[in-house]
Design brief:
Helix 2 links the parallel strand 3 and strand 4. The N terminus is likely disordered. Helix 5 crosses helix 6. By secondary structure, the chain is an alpha+beta fold. The relative contact order is 0.14. The protein has a three-stranded antiparallel β-sheet with strand order 5-6-7, sandwiched between helices. The longest helix is centred in the middle third of the chain and has 16 residues. 35% of the residues lie in helices and 15% in strands.
């Protein structure tokens, strides 16, 4: 029911190594001394070449901000967009209303009310997998469909969708009065599927996942 719950509910001077309990100090390019209570753990890169050097040094996972002209690594813009979506859902002031499924109506014949705190998007790169051990230089052939949402425990989460599930969510978000069965019949028509009933049953499985 995971899918259903989603719906209803620079580098300038180097810092000296130090323990968290020690002050850390460095001198910037203007000669000013900057003191920190603990070693810095997040990086904002102010130049494209600095961004490239940070990734080459293995510090890419610590970067939390770059300038707009940074274009390396190639997934950087999409990764920033994905992480921004996480921040948006976490700080969205709307509450998730308590919703239940009417057993007499079911998933297909009732109106599906989406979670208001979600951000669906299509990415060229699988940005949810990017980390120290996975930093691709070329986009895969197949696009990645992700939905970032806020869960009921007030934490950000994501769901990876296939193309049909992504299209179903897109239609649900239109909120045009159609029920689940009608939306899936529309998708079957778009696919020119020879067995619309199979698409409807597959859609039911998606909603129950």
């Amino acid at each position: 029911m995971r899918f259903l719950r989603l719906l209803v509910a620079a580098a300038g001077g180097a810092l000296a190594a130090a323990s968290a309990a020690e002050d850390v100090a460095t001198r910037d390019d203007t000669g000013a001394t900057i003191a920190l209570e603990a070693p810095a753990r997040r990086i904002v890169s102010l130049a494209p070449n600095a961004t490239e050097l940070l990734y080459a040094a293995g510090a890419g996972a610590r970067i939390v901000g770059v300038v707009a002209t940074s274009d390396w690594p190639p997934y950087l813009e999409e990764l920033a967009r994905y992480e921004w979506a996480e921040a948006e859902v976490l700080f969205d002031p709307r509450d998730l209303a308590d919703s239940t499924i009417d057993a007499d109506v079911g998933l297909l014949d009732g109106r599906i009310v989406p979670n208001p705190v979600l951000r669906p998007a299509v990415y060229r790169f699988p940005v949810h997998r990017i980390g120290p051990d996975y930093q691709p230089c070329e986009a895969p052939v197949t696009a990645t469909y992700l939905v970032v949402c806020r869960r009921r425990d007030d934490r950000a989460g994501f769901i990876e969708l296939n193309a049909v599930a992504a299209r179903l969510l897109e239609l649900i978000l239109l909120q045009d009065g159609r029920n689940g069965r009608q939306l899936l019949e529309s998708i079957a028509g778009e696919l020119k599927h020879l067995a619309p009933a199979a698409v409807i049953e597959g859609g039911r499985d998606i909603l129950q996942t």
